[in-house]
Design goal:
Number of domains: 1
Number of helices: 1
Shape: globular
Strand content: 35-45%
CATH architecture: Roll
Largest sheet: 5 strands, antiparallel
Number of strands: 5
Radius of gyration: 14 Å
CATH superfamily: Hotdog Thioesterase
Helix content: 10-25%
Length: about 120
């Protein structure tokens, strides 16, 4: 299986710096799939904090309605992770964000995701 390399990140307008823990790996040495949801959540928090939308209440005023994750390469624990994020659709009652989870040390994309809130 070919490992996808990181294309131009110009379509994403924010990159969150995160870190995985050694304990995030399963017994095969691969990042547990549930950890990706936590990485997306952390990226969302950083994104909205950067937009100064989280400074008062520290709460999200919306709920996560749907998340789709496409796993592209095995992630690792105890390493730096970048999550590129963009709001790709603003509707009257919801909005959609796209994400790219990758290792900044190798530029290997671990996953791409989309979330509707």
């Amino acid at each position: 299986m070919d490992v996808p390399q990181l294309p131009d990140n110009s379509e994403f307008n924010f990159i969150a710096d995160c870190h995985t823990r050694w304990s995030d790996e399963d017994n095969l040495g691969v990042l547990n799939n549930a950890v990706y949801l936590t990485l997306l959540e952390e990226a969302r928090f950083q994104y909205f904090t950067n937009l100064e939308l989280m400074h008062l209440s520290k709460q999200f005023n919306f709920v996560l309605g749907q998340t789709n994750i496409r796993f592209l390469a095995p992630g690792k624990g105890a390493t730096a992770v970048s999550v590129a994020i963009q709001t790709s659709h603003l509707g009257n009652r919801s909005f959609t964000q796209k994400y790219r989870v990758y290792c900044p040390l190798t530029d290997i994309i671990w996953a791409e995701a989309e979330a509707v809130m």
